[in-house]
Design brief:
- This protein has about 120 residues and is of the alpha+beta class.
- The protein has one domain: 3-Layer(aba) Sandwich (Trna Endonuclease, Chain: A, domain 1).
- The protein is about 40% helix and about 15% strand.
- It is built from four helices and four strands; from the N terminus they run H-E-H-E-E-H-E-H.
- It has a four-stranded mixed beta sheet, with helices on both faces.
- Strand 3, helix 3 and strand 4 form a beta-alpha-beta unit.
- The longest helix is centred in the first third of the chain and has 15 residues.
- The model has no long low-confidence stretch (mean pLDDT about 90).
Length: about 120
């Protein structure tokens, strides 16, 4: 499966498994496919001026646990690795008290998130 398909499966699982936290996940705009040409460049400049950050992780789960403020996940296709810019972004997030990881595929992400959520303490009704 592609990174897109794996990420889509992860979000479906998240919403089914943790429906009370469905609104606590957000997607980075860095991975979206834009049309080629001038329009894409204009859209990228506009998104950057509105706060888009280079190499931002694919997903952010805004649920704190006993150790971290939230969880950043950089999804990768199997066998692929994060770029140096993505690793730097993750390190900045770690230094701010967030968990920040690179994971290959939806199953690895599900396992990691389940462990992370074992010590979550926020209850949303």
């Amino acid at each position: 499966m592609s990174e897109f398909t794996e990420q889509k499966e992860l979000i479906r699982w998240w919403r089914d498994t943790y429906p009370q936290y469905a609104k606590c996940v957000r997607l980075s705009l860095n991975g979206i496919n834009l049309p080629p040409g001038k329009k894409a460049a204009m859209m990228i400049n506009q998104m950057k001026s509105q706060g888009m950050v280079l190499a931002e992780s694919d997903l952010f789960f805004g649920v704190p646990n006993l150790t971290y403020h939230g969880l950043y996940v950089e999804m990768k296709d199997f066998g692929k690795v994060a770029t140096p810019e993505q690793e730097e972004y993750l390190e900045v997030q770690r230094s701010m008290g967030y968990e920040a990881v690179v994971l290959e595929g939806a199953e690895a992400a599900k396992e990691f998130i389940q462990e992370y959520m074992k010590t979550s303490f926020v209850v949303i009704n």
